[in-house]
Amino acid sequence: MLKLSKIFIVLFILTAPLLYGCATEDEKGQTAEQAQQHDEGENHNEGDNHDGEKGHEEEEGHNENVVMSDQELKEFKVQLKTAGPGELETHVTLAGELVIPPANLAHIRPRFSGIVKKVYKNIGDHVKKGETLAIIESNESLTDYKILSLISGTVIEMHLTQGEVVEDGSHGFTIANLKTIWAYFKVYQKDLPYVKKGSRVTIRAGRDMPEARSVIDYISPVMDEETRTANARVVIDNRNEIWKPGLFVNGEVTTSTQKVDILIPKTAIEEIDGKPVVFVKTDEGFAPRVISIGRKNTVNVEVVSGLKPGEVYVSHGGFTLKAELQKSEFGEGHGH
């Protein structure tokens, strides 16, 4: 027994280092594997952080500012406004035509046949009520009589020449007072619930024509059988005589008015990377700010987010700043 115990002790002493070495190698292997996993985890986290930063930068969009002096703003006709509340109007657009009010039109004819001895007025001349237009010698009495203007206005038609014999109503003058003019608009059935007497109207005739503002003062009580439309009449102040009878116009009839927290003109909005952007004034210049748009009409839009009350923004001429921003991306512009 004693010999067997000694043999086991000797074997244990000989094999113990080998067993310990194997265990150590296993531990080293596990430690290396854990370290590799730890490094990969850190690399993965760094990648996530990098992607997050990149996404944040992408979400922020363009961080560059466009720097322009007051002189440059004036030169490029860049206009600024302060963001704030306003009233957003919704409209119905109607087509119409300008006409002369019947009370402002006079057809003046000779009372008796005779010979035209003198003509004092021509087409385009302004006349006053009671002013002499022509003198005719009567065939019956052989005495002269005057043709007088019945209203003050402008001669728009004349069929009378000196020495001419007048025998019927085809000769004479047409006088029109163009200081006031009417616009007649066609109102379709779908628009009748929104177009009412007293509704505000903005009249436009094209890009180079000024706007006129008035109200609807009459809507016909019956529909036209052929066009199935009603007539809406608008009286236009035409003291400068810019509006001409026969001109086709569009009328934007205000159907409702809503108060919004921030209202800006459509001219303030530029598109960058497919998103609506407004240039906002900062200490460093003008920063492009992505905005969210709410309700809108043909002129103004509601800003839901991206612009705060009191901030100064570019209301007109933003395309100039957009061009400078795009140039700065290539190192050519004013952006910093």
Broad structural category:
alpha+beta
CATH architectural group of the largest domain:
Beta Barrel
How large, in whole angstroms, is the Cα Rg? 43 Å
Largest sheet: 6 strands, antiparallel, barrel
Number-wise, the strands total 22
Average of pLDDT? 84
**Unreliable stretches covering 5 or more consecutive residues:** 1-12, 14-61
Question: How far is it from the N-terminal to the C-terminal residue, by CA?
Answer: 94 Å
Q: Roughly how much helix do the residues carry, as a percent range? A: 10-25%
Total individual domains: 4
- The largest beta-sheet arranges its strands as 2-11-14-13-12-15
Strand percent estimate: 35-45%
CATH superfamily of the largest domain: Efflux pump adaptor protein, beta barrel domain
SS summary, helix count = 3
Shape: elongated
Enter the CATH topology name of the largest domain: Elongation Factor Tu (Ef-tu), domain 3
What is the CATH first-level class name of the largest domain? Mainly Beta
**Element order: H for helix, E for strand:** HHEEEEEEEEEEEEEEEEEEEEEEH
